[in-house]
Design brief:
about 15% strand, Rossmann fold, alpha/beta, elongated, 8 strands, about 40% helix, single chain, 2 domains, 9 helices
């Protein structure tokens, strides 16, 4: 009598070996993904490289010499610094909020602030939590919330209604997330211009370089999703040899709304310091002239 369920033939050794290899590879990939998921803040934010910045005596000197107004944003147990610098013109054309790149502090933005002040703008320098003298741990949600609170304070302090956002590298992602949430502060329709130096389409777009899907990124900074929703003109400034944020990112963003977004290319790399060139500020002044009438007073 034959058995209704004859025994299965044994699995060939090569197949057992292949299955073990596949399982091991999947475990390694899972461990890699979990590790990067939890290490993301340390990989993305580099406050240690930015240093501690100016001491109290130096800040007091800026307050006396430049009229700097120092303010502290207190949210979620963190204490985050913001500086406000007045226009160098008798009347101001609006408020510019500058958001810096990684490994930088608001202390490093004084020259850029000086150019905007020369053009007749009050300037807000909003720090990121965990950077410089500010406490707390950086994240997209926290940094954007702090920056919005700083802009809210600065607009109330200066009574300005016109707002310009100027971001560099990581700060471009911050600026665009702020733009997406401007309705939460006192001037919901104030954004007149966005200036983005070395912008990325998103932080999430870097995930495939690590062999991971984009959805795993905790702080995605999706500039590519925000830009098409903006009504204001946008100026993108990008170097052709940028090795950190390739110019392909700037080109992709410019293509999202070509009638509103201007891309100006420069020679150099990510850290060439193009904001120290006259051509950089000529491009900015040209964009300001198109967005705001020369005789406009806020």
């Amino acid at each position: 009598m034959t058995s209704p369920n004859p025994p299965k033939p044994p699995t060939p050794p090569w197949r057992r070996t292949a299955l073990r290899v596949v399982r091991f590879a999947l475990l390694l990939y899972l461990a890699w993904g979990v590790t990067l998921f939890f290490l993301q803040p340390k990989l993305l934010y580099l406050p240690a490289l930015a240093g501690r910045g100016a001491d109290e005596a130096e800040i007091a000197g800026l307050e006396k010499r430049d009229g700097l107004v120092r303010h502290w944003i207190e949210r979620d147990g963190a204490r985050v610094e913001a500086w406000l610098l007045p226009s160098k013109q008798p009347t101001a054309r609006g408020l510019v909020a500058i958001t810096h790149g990684n490994a930088e502090l608001i202390d490093h933005l004084l020259e850029d602030a000086g150019e905007w002040r020369r053009m007749g703008f009050d300037v807000l320098l909003a720090e990121y939590r965990g950077y410089g003298r500010s406490t707390g741990s950086p994240s997209q949600e926290a940094i954007v919330g702090d920056t919005l609170a700083a802009i809210d304070w600065a607009l109330a302090k200066t009574a300005r209604r016109t707002l310009v956002l100027h971001g560099r590298s990581l700060g471009t992602g911050v600026a665009m997330q702020v733009a997406a949430r401007l309705g939460e502060i006192q001037a919901p329709h104030a954004l007149a211009l966005a200036v983005l130096e070395a912008p990325f389409t998103s932080i999430a777009s870097y995930a495939p370089q690590y062999g991971l899907p984009q959805f795993i990124v905790r702080d995605p900074y999706r500039t590519d999703e925000v830009l098409p929703t903006l009504a204001c003109p946008v100026l993108i400034l990008h170097t052709r040899g940028d090795e950190v944020v390739p110019i392909a990112h700037g080109e992709a963003l410019a293509s999202l709304a070509p009638t509103r977004i201007d891309l100006v290319e420069f020679d150099g790399t990510h850290n060439s310091g193009i904001s120290m060139t006259r051509a950089y500020w000529e491009a900015v002044e040209n964009a300001v002239g198109k967005a705001l009438p020369p005789d406009a007073v806020d």
